[in-house]
Amino acid sequence: MAQSAGSAASAAQYVSVPALLARNAKSFGAQAAYREKELGIWQSWSWAESAKEIEALALGLLTLGVSPGDHIAVIGRNRPYLYWSIVAAQSVGAVPVPLYQDAVGEEVAYVLDHCAARFIIAGDQEQVDKILDIQDRLEGLEHIVYLDQRGMRKYDHSRLTPFDKVQEAGRASGLEAELAERTAALDYDSTCVMLYTSGTTGRPKGVVLSNRNIIETSKNSAEFDRLKAGDEVLAYLPMAWVGDFIFSIGQAYWTGFCVNCPESAETVMHDLREIGPTYYFAPPRVFETQLTSVMIRMEDAGRFKRWIFQKFMDRAKTVGPKLLDRKPVGLMDRLMYRLGEFFVYGPLKNTLGLSRVRVGYTAGEAIGPEIFDFYRSLGINLKQLYGQTEASVFITQQKDDEVRPDTVGTPTPGVEIKIDDNGEVFYRSPGVFVEYFKNAESTAGTKDDEGWVATGDAGFLESDTGHLRIIDRAKDVGKMASGALFAPKYVENKLKFFPNILEAVVLGNGRDNCVAFINIDLTAVGNWAERNNIAYGGYQELSQHPQVRDTIREHVEEVNKSVAQDEMLNGCQIHRFLVLHKELDADDGELTRTRKVRRRIIEEKYDDLITALYDGSETVSTETEVTYEDGRKGSIKATLTLMDAATVPVQVKTLEAAE
Amino acid sequence: MLDQSQGYVTADGRQIGGVLMEMKDITLRFGGVTAIKDISFDIHEGEIRAIIGPNGAGKSSMLNVISGFYTPQEGEVWYKGAPRPAMKPYEVARMGVARTFQNIALFEGMTVLDNVMTGRLNHMKAGILAQAIWWGKARDEEIANREHVERVIDFLEIQSIRKTPVGRLPYGLKKRVELARALAAEPSLLLLDEPMAGMNVEEKEDMSRFILDVNDEFGTTIALIEHDMGVVMDLSDRVVVMDYGKKIGDGTPDEVRNDQTVIDAYLGVPQE
């Protein structure tokens, strides 16, 4: 059995990612470190080969004149070369700054300017074009290294160099001694990476994470789940996101497992199936989409197949989670589950690419209990974690046999948690970030002298189990005019658990009652429309179809019933709502790049709609500005019908009364 | 080799080579109907040449003459500096001319990969038997061809549908697969018969991008027929305008756009 080198060695021996690389090249030399599908074939690089590639690139960076402490931005889709770029940057004492590849020029300009990046390593022509468009504003920028040479031949190459040329120059440079010196100078407190938070409010902030933060966190979390060399992950989430950094760099280098990169963004699902990762992370949205597509395809299946599927899935729902939690299960149930594994669960997991998943995580948003249970009942060990960039991801995570859909688990080893008087969650851990770059004020406002960090989330620890439950963003929790507690996300999540609803925004802070904006899910509702012979020209038309509005009304009323059961939050029932004429979009600033709702911006932008919802009008005409993918702007006009929803009369409990 | 002294430089600064193909006084008749009447024009190496005209102007017939599908009754087609004798289309294909069709002509039941592989047919030398037992040279040959095909697939960004039967694809993607098959043949002259017909704006943008990229990356000479004036004027270096089988204009997009005969015949008389 492959023994994790991590558990044998103490963390202090390896004080930087390049040091871990050197260890891996020695201990797991021939094992695969990276794989990427290229031209239809999986290419792989062993740890020893990767170390060579990284060394060549690091030497190349030296020839370009990189100094210790320089910021090197990395932008592009997940590719081994770009992961090497990150480690190469660390090796020469520079700070890697991964950026979101789908960020528009304006966002990229802000970040590059803020960190005064001297060098950029870009994935392809698209990214280079984006940077060239804004280069006038970037005084610090000296050189761009690019990876994919397609379409780049005719560019002015005075400040542009292809990736392989940089490596070539590095190999010929003879600067090995200087590189070794630079790498040796790294210690536990030197900066490992700087990641910009997507920021639900205001400008993104550069979170500085040290080697200590990343390595300690990777060690603790990897041991928690017994990750080991030989595990496989698929790296398909944005490289600028802290989760990808921890999974694909931190834990991968600590344990020595293999990082697989998909061929392109469109082929992720194929590649997932071919690789069959053993350690897998996906945001709830991905699990939702997969489940929706499975269900749609099952509806198309023949009657017999549908019957088998139904029969075994019912069985799985009661037996599957128990088996995963190692609870006692009767012989008959075990037998039937085995049979189901052969006929239904096995093939289904294979189709989903989840056959080999030993540890699966979801986080970022609440996941619907039904969705969560569906995957667990198939025997997939799906768990939840709670984290943020400032914590190097892990704050809490669920233990293997303590998995529940409504909590986010117990503190990760090494993490302390406290809840303050207002219900806000605080934590302290070895993973706590060093500072916000060039923003001492925010740093002081987030992290106190003792190292406690405010999460900005309101929640509580369950007294009997010690599990953490998150209710909402602390700043979004408010009060209704009546004094009742207002927690929009709690209601929005309940709405979003319906497959027909993609996104919901609940409003009502300081008002008499709550109203909501709804985005329908075009896949689910579109499929329904097709089955019922309802023709539609696009999102806008389908969203305003009277039958769609009625269906959504039923969903809203069902949510109201469920909200009414909760003593604390029964004031948040939705009295009126409308189905939005456009999908909320990150390009329009309505969502963050990680698809979280930006409440303030939506409130300002759709002010007219909110007014109409509260003044009792039946319809409202509106015009909304939209931004297309290439940055051009346009506008769409629509007349929306406002809908009333039945609510359950309740005795509203005010905050004062509750205290 | 081609006479490079006839080359020119385009408005956007690209160097265009000598004459690759020349039509000399072509006349094509079907019984009593004269589809093409006494037309002459040339295609330079490395340029994007458009043929435009109203419906029934004889554009597709012209393309079929270039591809060798029709043999004109009068006139000569010169290719690489020598007159080209009457040939079967596959012989023309072997000389480095590939094309796409106005009504997609793919094998619907075959996967994208297999369809694109058919474009390599002229590069396969092994016999049927050797291919069937997949041994020795036949095997090496197929691997080399497959690699080339994968480059084309990568280039046109159709990796995600590599193994999908063509029949299941939407129209816009089928068009792209057809382009892939033509590209797989490594043509020196690529003929596109209405590459954007029936596409939405986004698909047209993608296709335009690919056409420009093909021309830019591989230096492929492209002759295309297209109805969408915006596309033609943006893409092409020079334009031939046909009307009722006759050539009524020839020049850069700007020249053609300002030519009164062309405006009257095709683009319409502006209302004052």
What does it look like?
Chain A is of the alpha/beta class and 659 residues long. Helix content of chain A is 40%, strand content 22%. Chain A has 23 helices and 29 strands. In chain A, strands 4-3-5-6-7 form a five-stranded parallel β-sheet, sandwiched between helices. In chain A, helix 3 (47-64) crosses helix 4. The longest helix of chain A has 22 residues, at 303-324. Residues 1-9 and 655-659 of chain A have low confidence and may be disordered. Chain B has ten helices and twelve strands. In chain B, the strands form three sheets. Chain B has a six-stranded mixed β-sheet, with helices on both faces. The mean pLDDT of chain B is 87. The interface between A and B is medium-sized, with 13 and 13 residues.
Write the layout of secondary structure elements.
The complex is a heterodimer of chains A (659) and B (272).
Chain A: H1 5-8, H2 17-27, E1 32-38, E2 41-46, H3 47-64, E3 71-75, H4 80-91, E4 95-99, H5 105-115, E5 119-122, H6 125-134, E6 143-146, E7 160-162, H7 163-173, H8 176-184, E8 191-196, E9 206-210, H9 211-224, E10 232-234, H10 242-255, E11 258-261, H11 268-275, E12 279-281, H12 284-300, H13 303-324, H14 331-352, E13 359-362, H15 369-377, E14 382-388, E15 393-397, E16 410-411, E17 416-419, E18 424-428, E19 435-436, H16 440-446, E20 453-461, E21 468-473, E22 478-479, E23 485-486, H17 488-496, E24 501-507, E25 514-520, H18 522-531, H19 539-543, H20 546-564, E26 574-579, H21 599-605, H22 607-615, E27 619-627, E28 633-641, E29 643-644, H23 655-658
Parallel strand pairs in A: 1-11, 3-4, 3-5, 5-6, 6-7, 10-11, 12-13, 13-14, 25-26
Antiparallel strand pairs in A: 1-2, 8-9, 9-19, 14-15, 15-16, 17-18, 18-20, 20-21, 22-23, 24-25, 26-29, 27-28
Chain B: E1 8-9, E2 15-16, E3 19-30, E4 33-44, E5 48-52, H1 59-66, E6 74-79, E7 82-83, H2 89-94, E8 97-100, H3 112-118, H4 128-133, H5 137-155, H6 171-184, E9 189-193, H7 201-218, E10 221-225, H8 229-235, E11 238-243, E12 246-251, H9 253-258, H10 260-267
Parallel strand pairs in B: 5-10, 5-11, 8-9, 9-10
Antiparallel strand pairs in B: 1-2, 3-4, 3-6, 6-7, 11-12
